[in-house]
Amino acid sequence: MFNLENIRKDFPILSRKVNGKSLIYFDNAATSQTPKQVIDVIVAYYSNYNANIHRGVHTLSQEATDLYEQAREKIRRHFNAKHAHEIIFTSGTTHGINLVANGFSSLLKKGDEIIVSALEHHSNIVPWQMLCERTGAVLRVIPMNDDGELVMSEFDKLLSEKTKLVFVNHISNALGTINPIEYIIEKAHQVGAAVLIDGAQSSPHIKADVQKLDADFYVVSAHKMCGPTGVGVLYGKEAWLKKLPPYQGGGEMIAEVTFEKTTYADLPHKFEAGTPNICGGIAFGAAIDYMNRIGFKAIEKQERELLQYGTEKLLEIEGLKIYGTSEHKTSVISFNLEGIHPYDVGTILDKMGIAVRTGHHCAQPIMDYFKIPGTVRASFAFYNTKAEIDSLVEGVKKAKMMLS
Ligand code: PMP
């Protein structure tokens, strides 16, 4: 049973003041807040279990290893990966993407093509540009339309036997558009290309089933899902992970080392060099437990209502334009007030205790498309309320009055 009042009590930060006002947190697409159930796990870890994992015979090390591996299993179950060793712990989405991009350096040749979309975060553009520089592969871009949707007929035209990789986000962080990844994956596979889905923005809202989607890679960050910063996972199909070379060398990722030759450990350790973020991984497991206890159906329903309510209310303000008007979108409202810089609106809202993000949201090509320097982005989570949206609307009206 979804009880918003009780849920809000789980998040200590929601009762703090900012600039003398009750915090209203609408920057969830940048990072989500952390419930006490996850904070408690972090405290318990450093109070009781802190030890290095996988290599100790002593009790603490074994207990920490068990907790870490249990978290991997929770994450496997959540995303419905076939094997736990297909879940690679990373420092976040950016790390996961770079790991895959680096791995493909030895698998691509000059003239091969990589497709990304016009809706990508910089972390899903720059690593592929770097890969193209290393290999001579060519980057192609699926264009978007005025609603902030990808134009699938253009994607169809880009696909050919030259296409080796396709990278798209499941949900755009700048506009909230939900991309038709099922179609993209199916079509890309028809020409033999591998598909990486950037799930940084979808994972807090939608429970993805990587086997059903048939994604080759799916990357997420824990901090967008009520977990801590500095940890995430890369899901990769076993066959691909076996094929890709390791990203980093070091301890933990080897089978045997001599100065003549080193052999690599089996999955997942081949991609997990060095001491990982052990506490972070365990806390990520706890965050996934927390979100599943609330239930993704209830989360989606609450966020859909917030999005609809917020969109209607904000559009009542004259001169306010929303960017990203697809029917298929999730809880992000990116907007501008006519003739007013988004930074100024964000600064005034902050004075009222309202946290929104302003700027290009690491998605400059989208801003270029709309010919704007950036937007004000209010992004909702399941713990936000309609009353908070009312305060946002009042705040935006005040900002408009002060800045016009
Ligand atoms: N992709 C998308 C769509 C994102 O929203 C983000 C975070 N803003 C990232 C990638 C990068 O995630 P991280 O900074 O956690 O590596």
From TrEMBL:
Q: Which reaction does it catalyse?
A: (sulfur carrier)-H + L-cysteine = (sulfur carrier)-SH + L-alanine
Listed GO molecular functions?
Answer: transaminase activity
Q: What domain of life is recorded for the organism?
A: Bacteria
Q: What is its EC number?
A: 2.8.1.7
Q: Which InterPro entries match?
A: Aminotrans_V_dom (IPR000192), Cys_dSase_SufS (IPR010970), Cysteine_dSase (IPR016454), PyrdxlP-dep_Trfase (IPR015424), PyrdxlP-dep_Trfase_major (IPR015421), PyrdxlP-dep_Trfase_small (IPR015422)
Task: Identify the keywords attached in UniProt to this record, alphabetized.
Answer: Aminotransferase, Pyridoxal phosphate, Transferase
Database matches in Pfam families: Aminotran_5
Ranges for domain Aminotransferase class V come to: 24-392
What is the top EC class of this enzyme, as a single word?
Answer: transferase
Which cofactors must be present for this protein to function?
A: pyridoxal 5'-phosphate
Query: What is the similarity comment for this entry?
Result: Belongs to the class-V pyridoxal-phosphate-dependent aminotransferase family. Csd subfamily.
General function of this protein: Catalyzes the removal of elemental sulfur and selenium atoms from L-cysteine, L-cystine, L-selenocysteine, and L-selenocystine to produce L-alanine.
Name of the protein this chain belongs to: Probable cysteine desulfurase
- What is the protein's species of origin? Mariniflexile ostreae
